[in-house]
Amino acid sequence: MEIILFIAIGLFIGALIAYLVTKSGLNTLHQRELLIKADENNILIRQNSVLEAKVEAQANSLNEVRKAMVDTFKSAASDALTQNNKQFLDLANLSSRLMLRRLKVILMSVNLPSLKCLNR
Questions:
Q1: Rounded CA gap, 118 and 120, in Å?
Q2: CB–CB of 101/112 below 8 Å?
Q3: What global pTM score does this model have?
């Protein structure tokens, strides 16, 4: 009976030692895995920061392009309006001169003495 008790105690102590050694080994492995994951996390955080900076730079660039396009459109619209106004005034001037000539011809054909002052 004593032998069975020693064998049981030996098995228990052996199992306890095996458990403690295994647990220690697993803790060490787990700590290494945590360090690896922490390094990977740090790398991803840096990559994310770089990508955020690129996105911000692109957004700024797009805003600058949009502003330049708006300025260009405003300038082109202003130039077109100025040209259109000039053409309108030129055409109005030409039309008024032609109309005045026609009126002079009509008035001259009527030959009224009081309208001779228009013959200038």
A1: 5
A2: no
A3: 0.49
